[in-house]
Amino acid sequence: MIRYAAIILACVIVVYLFAAGFLYIRQDRLVFPAEATPLDDPAALIPGARMVVLHTRDNLDLKAYYRPPADHGPVLLYLHGNAGSIASRAHRFALMAQGETGLLAVEYRGYAGNPGQPSEDGLALDAEAAMNFLHGQDIAPGQIVLYGESLGTNVAVRTALAFPAAGLVLDAPYTSIADVAASRYPYMPVRLLLRNRFDTLGRIAGLKMPLLVMRTLRDGTVPPTQSLSVFNCARAQADMDNPAWYAFNPDRKWRSVCGNGVHRKNHDTGSPLGSCNDGIRPSFPKRGAYQRKAFPIVKMSSE
Predict the structure, then answer these.
(1) Which of 3, 260, 273, 280 lies 20 to 30 A from 118 at CA?
(2) Cβ(153)–Cβ(211) under 8 Å?
(3) Where residue 91 sits, what CATH number does that domain have?
């Protein structure tokens, strides 16, 4: 009996070690499920947009979508999530880039035909190249709003710590990839296995610009409590010059908001630069109630 129990235990250990090894070897494909289809000209999907090339500090040339702003208007620098590509988000960009609002949608290394292999530091270099491109287009820091989506929220935070900008938008941020992985694979020692940690909580406290954190409560990847933890950490450092906002929606619908005002129509997973039923409220520590103040460039609705 003891012998059979020992055999069963040995088999369980072997299977567990095999699964852990599989996760370690395949982790880059899980964290970066890159879309392989090369990018097409975005003009037909995003009016006024064109393909541009971003030059990184480690000598990569990356394709990206760019729509110049009109009349010195704002520019959204968009850093997308881990799945798909900027081409799969063209409908969202078309909602965002209206009127005078410009857009630079960064396509990461290793995605959509771009050279290189994605990594935490590599994506930060891609965002750095995007900021340098905007500066080369005579876009002032006060015109730039950094927008990070899911995985890209950490990239956006790193960029905000390295470059001045008008504000930072985090769409479904997470505390760290290690925390997300641990919530999905609680039976695995993921914190020991991960090469790319994307520690947002460890960086956000150094933020010195207006912040808007948004999320839906129906996110199957990032637990809502993690987004709230990121906000609370940033809120502790917020002040009148660098306030922090938090907005949530119980479903996946956001009222789309662009630099030229509020669009009343709801769009399912459309532009998440929008309001929720309770409005967008900036928060300041040690000041009691929320206080109303417009997020830089983006107009909000409380209706």
Answers:
(1) 273
(2) no
(3) 3.40.50.1820
167's enclosing H/E stretch is strand 167-171
- What are 195-220's pLDDT values in tens digits? 899 999 999 999 999 999 987 766 77
CA distances from 301 to 102, 254, 262, 264, 292 (A): 21, 11, 7, 9, 11
d(C-alpha 289, C-alpha 15), whole Å: 53
Query: At 66, which amino acid appears?
Result: Y
Q: What is the DSSP letter of 258?
A: E
Residue 221, burial from CB neighbour count under 10 angstroms (0-12, 13-18, 19+): middle
Phi, psi of 28 (to 5 degrees): -65, -35
Residue 295 inside a domain? The answer is no
Q: Is residue 70 within 8 Å of 95, Cβ to Cβ?
A: no
Question: Helix 151-162 vs helix 120-136: angle between axes, to the nearest 10 degrees?
Answer: 50
Is residue 82 within 8 Å of residue 107, measured between CB atoms?
A: no
Burial tier of 7 (Cβ tally within 10 Å: 0-12, 13-18, 19+): exposed
Residue ranges making up the domain that contains 146? 2-28+39-283
Q: pLDDT (tens digit, 9 = 90+) per residue, 212-264?
A: 998 776 677 888 889 989 998 988 877 777 778 777 665 544 433 322 222 22
Residue 229 in any domain: the answer is yes
Q: Kindly report the pTM of this predicted structure.
A: 0.81
In a domain, 115, yes or no: yes
List beta partners, residue 65.
Answer: 51, 105
Cα torsion angle, 85, 273, 206, 31, sign? negative
- Whether 291 is in a domain gets the answer no
CB 190 within 8 A of CB 176: no
Give the whole-angstrom CA distance, residue 234 versus residue 208. Answer: 9
